[in-house]
Amino acid sequence: MSKTVLLSSIYINPATQKAPFTTVSLPTTSFPRFLPLLPTPCKNDSTGQSPQPHRPLIFCATGAAMIFYFQYEKARLERQRIVEMSKGYGKPKVGGPFTLKDTNGNEFTEKDLLGKYTLIYFGFSHCPDICPDELDKMAEAIDIIQARAPNVLRSIFVSCDPARDTPSVLKSYLSEFHPSLIGLSGTWEQTKHICKQYRVYFSTPPDVKPNEEDYLVDHSIYFYVMDPEGDFVECIGRQDTPESAAGIVLQHVRDWKREGKKIDETPLPYLSQVQGVVGTPA
Amino acid sequence: MVWPFSSSAQNTSTNPNSSGPKSRDGGFIAPDRSAREKCYESRDRLFDCLDRNDILDAVKEDEKSRRVCKGENGVYERDCAKAWIKYFKEKRVMEYNRDRTIERIKEDDARMVAKQKAEKKGRGLFG
């Protein structure tokens, strides 16, 4: 129905040869100011031929440029909307204070997230296939991000299995995926607390006995992207590839920098350790 | 009965159902990449056998699958952690059902699109 309205309003009365754009029913609020200066698209005189043959070409080129511009702006505004949802009044309460231990046994809190973008994945080391797949994906994404925007990202794996995943277990488990992965674990209460803060579902009962039974932990399968101020930005799900996941983070980093905000770009400790290992003989 | 766990890990658990060898700080060591790969291969060999014998749900048809794919089942249960054994069998059924549902949705969509096209053609360009 709307197509009909549009087409009838663009039709030109050859006798009057008026510009059509004055009658087109398009939203005017979001259109750029240069719209009235566009050439008229179709002027049919009695022979059916356009009097100025290059006009349609200019129109098409301008139209294409407009389409690209709108798509770019739409994507940028969409990202801005996502980011702004995490700031100010009514921001989603994902994230918050927590206390866990890293793989060296040192305390790690939400304050240690500040300064860089963070990718957080919740899982457990006895996971059959999903966590290994997601961690491989995360490792690839980390490499892509490190190559294009060095030292802006911190990568964290939080265990939802406090009874089995101790710091030393996580250290050897995560070493097979990526040297930058920071593994965090804690008591059942601490784990329950961070899962609650991050709205992560996890199913481990407090009194499970790993000595007597083998079990699996149900948990949400998302990467959480946090910004350098420790605020939640968005989730990246299973359907994303390493490239698209890296792309999402890199876009946010670019937007952040474009707004003149600071990112702490000091290299993470693992980089100097990797270089040290490379230097030593096998 | 002493289970032959590797001597490098301190294993104080002699329970075959337990979560595996213990680490130095009291945790339970998870299967590493090569152990996971080994489990995946044994699982795939078992599932090939089940496919050949038209068994979808190895949990419901446990007796039949053990009878028909005895060797593969034995290797699978040796190479995979206890909780994983049941998990992969259930996942097989879930994935099969999911794929059938997706196919059905695609067929329904295609039928609906064809129907709409036929209707549109009948009505002409301006509805």
From TrEMBL, chain A:
Gene3D superfamilies: Glutaredoxin (3.40.30.10). PANTHER family: AT19154P (PTHR12151:SF5), ELECTRON TRANSPORT PROTIN SCO1/SENC FAMILY MEMBER (PTHR12151). GO terms for cellular component: mitochondrion. Disulfide bonds join 127-131. One of its GO terms (biological process) is mitochondrial respiratory chain complex IV assembly. Pfam families: SCO1-SenC. Cu cation binds at residues 127, 131, 219. It comes from the Eukaryota. GO terms for molecular function: copper ion binding. Belongs to the SCO1/2 family. Keywords: Copper, Disulfide bond, Metal-binding. This is Thioredoxin domain-containing protein.
UniProtKB/TrEMBL annotation, chain B:
The keyword Ligase does not apply. One of its GO terms (biological process) is mitochondrial respiratory chain complex IV assembly. One of its GO terms (cellular component) is mitochondrial intermembrane space. Keywords: Cytoplasm, Disulfide bond, Mitochondrion, Nucleus. It comes from the Eukaryota. InterPro entries: COA6_fun, COX6B-like, CX6/COA6-like_sf. It is found in: Cytoplasm; Mitochondrion intermembrane space; Nucleus. Residues 1-32 are annotated as: Disordered. Residues 1-21 have a biased composition (Polar residues). The keyword tRNA-binding does not apply. Belongs to the cytochrome c oxidase subunit 6B family. This is Cytochrome c oxidase assembly factor 6. It comes from Endocarpon pusillum (strain Z07020 / HMAS-L-300199) (Lichen-forming fungus).
